[in-house]
Amino acid sequence: MSSTIIYGISIWLLWSYCSKTLTPTIGSITDLSRSFVVNGVELNPSYIGENQVAWWASAAILMLFLLALNEFGNIINPRNLNGYATSLFGVLSVLVVQLMISILDFTPTEGLPFLIIGMPVLASYLLLLGDLPEILSIRASRGQYLRSGIPTGFFILLSLFLTSTPMVIRQNMVQLFSASIVILTIFAWVMIKSESGDPREQDRRFSALVFMISVPGVLFVTIRFLLLLNNPDTVTRERWNLDWSFMNDLNSFIINVWPVDAVFGEDTRWRFYIAAIVNSARATLLSIVLCTILGIFIGVMRLSSNKLASSMATVYVEVFRNLPLAVLLFLIATQLGETLPLFREEANLNGWLYYSNKGIWTPTTETWRLGLFLILLISVWIAFRIMGRDGVDDSNRAVLQRSGIWGATTVLGIALMIEGATTPEVVKPIPESPASWSVVESTAFEITPMFTAMVMGLTLFTASVVAEVVRGSIQSLPRGQVEAAVSLALTPYQRLRLVILPQALRSMIPLLNSQYMNVWKNSSLAIIVAYSDVFYVIFVMMNNVGKLIPLFILLLVTYQAGSLLISGFMNAYNARVTRVRI
Fold it and tell me: What residues contact 467, with CB distance under 8 A and at least 6 apart?
């Protein structure tokens, strides 16, 4: 009885979802494709033409259809046409529809909505049956031709001669398509529940189910977006005008950036936007490195048998994990302002490093020296990778040798940079006034208090979560693995490197992936400490220019691209870690 009620509610929800999305979709298609021309003047401000409406809707549905088919990997072998014939058929169908709309006259109120909505509904039916590969390769049975060909032919006839059909069909298109989607969904669910096919068949049926449920929502979002861009209301249309030409104008405010220069009054907003992305990226990358190191240390500390060490690690995790990041950033920025001294003569370390509430200035060196140092480090890393192809020697002697080589390389690189380094040069126009002191720009590398507060906040907050990920992943390992490592007389370092971490990484990396993406997204709170990140820069541009929606879309794309980039690197590393099955 309870399952019957659940099924009934699910069917009602699906019907309501289809009706609520298809009704405004049909109205929007009509508004966008109906033309009112008087004396050569178009009176419908929303008009963009039948081809444009059909193209955007078809492109959105085609992308959804190709994702449901998931035949992208088969395109690598172009000779195997059967592997991607269905996807190719979908692309050709969209082109044929565009050609039909250009040649034939589909009415904006009935014909065009019927064609745009009916095509994906028919595609749902064909995808569910799975007969297209056999039909396209001319290997289908008579039954497959009939059950796929008859509905397709019937839909084509209705599309071409819709005006000749009974009025009840034309006036109740929402109910007709909603009922079709509900029936197809029930049919797909019954087929999936029956488990009558092999795993590949079941996967195709589930893809068809997701596709047919997604069709009304995708069409609604696509057509609604087109209507917003071509809204009859002038204010709304101007607000949704996605024209970024204003970004080519000179920027009207100053930001602190490095290494990309963005000069006030000389560079465009695009230049400031790129510089802000670099600011966000360098704070994020440094925070990811530091929070990983600190998180691993705290996570292992929590597992220590030393009660003091484990208690301190627990306190750290509970304090920083439960503290809102915005509050933490504010507290750090406040403490830096109170703790760091004024810019005075004594606020330095032997003239090499100056520190104050204005910032920290360190010696700088020539770019080629820094590049050579990085090349040395990468060369040593590559050499160790090549030497360890057949296995890494983790004996105490080998570990000391590797540590010695890394240490010598680091000392050599630091010495190389120090040789050509320049120390900060302080300018004192008014010696008795600390506020007038400054450092010549080319003589030192500046670390601003805003950057320091941002990195500290992100590191301390995220490290508390990383520590729990590390602790949970290590504790999830079978106890026998550690006991076996102990029985082999492995040192604690060898146990950690050879037994514990390789297995714990399998469960750690997916969770760390989410945390690293959170670091990138949480960097948007930099506005609290006045750090010039991408959110801060775009927020100020919104106040100056007033182009809220284009700038918000630009911000959305920026954060989405950064998250996908981090996810791509972590997924690649995860694939490498899980390559060997245990």
Answer: 294, 295, 296, 298, 299, 301, 302, 313, 316, 317
Cα 453 to Cα 235: distance, rounded to the nearest angstrom: 41
Structure tokens at 408: 């010598």
What radius of gyration do the chain's Cα atoms show? 32
**How many helical (H) and strand (E) elements, i.e. helices and strands, does the chain have?**
21, 8
Query: Would you write out the chain's pLDDT as a tens digit for each of its 582 residues?
Result: 677 888 889 999 999 999 999 999 999 999 999 888 887 787 788 888 889 999 999 999 999 999 988 887 777 777 777 777 888 888 999 999 899 888 888 888 888 999 999 999 999 999 988 888 888 878 888 888 898 899 999 998 988 888 777 787 888 889 999 999 999 999 999 988 887 777 888 888 899 999 999 999 999 999 998 888 887 777 777 777 788 888 888 888 888 877 777 787 788 999 999 999 999 999 999 999 999 999 999 998 888 888 898 899 999 999 999 999 999 999 999 888 878 887 776 677 777 788 888 888 888 887 788 888 889 888 988 888 788 777 666 667 777 888 888 888 888 888 888 887 787 878 878 777 777 777 877 778 888 889 999 999 999 999 999 999 999 888 887 777 777 777 777 777 677 777 777 788 888 898 999 999 999 999 999 999 989 899 999 999 988 888 888 899 999 999 999 999 999 999 988 888 776 555
Please tell me the distance from the alpha carbon of residue 248 to that of residue 240, in angstroms, as a whole number: 19
Could you say which DSSP state residue 341 is in? P
What number does CATH give the domain 269-364+422-577? 1.10.3720.10
User: 353: part of which helix (H) or strand (E)?
Assistant: strand 353-356
Contacts 24+ apart (CB under 8 A), 198-204: 201/130, 204/127, 204/130
Q: Taking the CB of residue 522, how many other CB atoms lie within 10 A of it?
A: 20
In whole angstroms, how far apart are CA 540 and each of 264, 335, 434, 453? Answer: 14, 26, 30, 21
Is the C-alpha dihedral spanning 369, 370, 371, 377 positive or negative?
A: positive
- Say how far apart CA 49 and CA 35 lie, in whole Å: 8
How is the chain split into domains, by residue range?
2-235, 269-364+422-577
| Phi, psi for 88 (deg, rounded to 5) | -65, -40
Nearest to 93 by CA among 113, 65, 135, 70: 65
Cα–Cα distance for residue pair 212/219, rounded to 1 Å: 11
Separation CA 234–CA 432 (nearest Å)? 60
Q: What's the CA gap between 42 and 230, in Å, rounded? A: 13
Residue count (the chain): 582
Amino acid at 183: I
Our measurement of the distance from residue 160's CA atom to the centroid of its chain's CA atoms, rounded to an integer in Å, reads: 43
Phi first, then psi: give them for residue 77, nearest 5 degrees.
-105, 85
Q: Do the beta carbons of residue 291 and residue 467 sit within 8 Å?
A: no
| Three-class DSSP labels, 169-226 | HHHCHHHHHHHHHHHHHHHHHHHHHHCCCCHHHHHHHHHHHHHHHHHHHHHHHHHHHH
- CA angle, residues 371, 377, 383, in degrees to nearest 5: 130
Q: Are 28 and 57 in contact (CB under 8 A)?
A: no
